[in-house]
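User: I'm writing a tutorial on reading structure tokens. Could you give me a worked example: one chain, its sequence, then its tokens, then a sentence or two explaining what the tokens reveal?
Assistant: Sure. Here is the example chain.
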Amino acid sequence: MKDREIVELFLERSEAAIREAESRYGRYCRAIALRIVGSERDAEEVVSDTWLGAWNAIPPHEPEDLGTFLGKITRQNAIKCWRRRSTAKRGGETVLALEELAGEIPSGGDPQTEAEAKELVQALDQFVRELPTAEKRVFLCRYWYLDPVADIAERFGYSQSKVKSMLARTRKKLKKSLIEEGLIDES
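And here are its predicted structure tokens:
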């Protein structure tokens, strides 16, 4: 079944939408969840929450790319699950990846306004779209899928030091871009 047909089932509030979404995107969503939470049991819970999240979000949203939409919901749910589990302990690949970006992206607390938060998201999207293909792939593997540097290096045939330096240069470019956009201070 094609994405548009699955979205139509969601819009019609048919329970078949969840079965079809699971059939088409279940492995993809589980892989995202497992990478972040690190446990099969938690990953299954996250994926179940993804189907509920999609059910609640469609309508009003009508995603153009259902896979990306479900992946985003899965990622958000997985990070929430990981944060709940990790409040008392720290460690793992997720902490490392998120800490790497922490210096470039304002975080925590209260964004001054929702408009500023939306501007930041738009600026990040634009930044990633404009990256050269190799940098974009490495950046997304690290900060979207939270892949370990070693896995990224192996996947693309780079040394780990090359991946680390690519990521450092890309984070530096991101910071410069956000400063130029006036979205973060130059500190």
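What the tokens reveal: The domain at 3-86 is CATH 1.10.1740.10 (Rna Polymerase Sigma Factor; Chain: A). The two ends are 50 Å apart (CA to CA).
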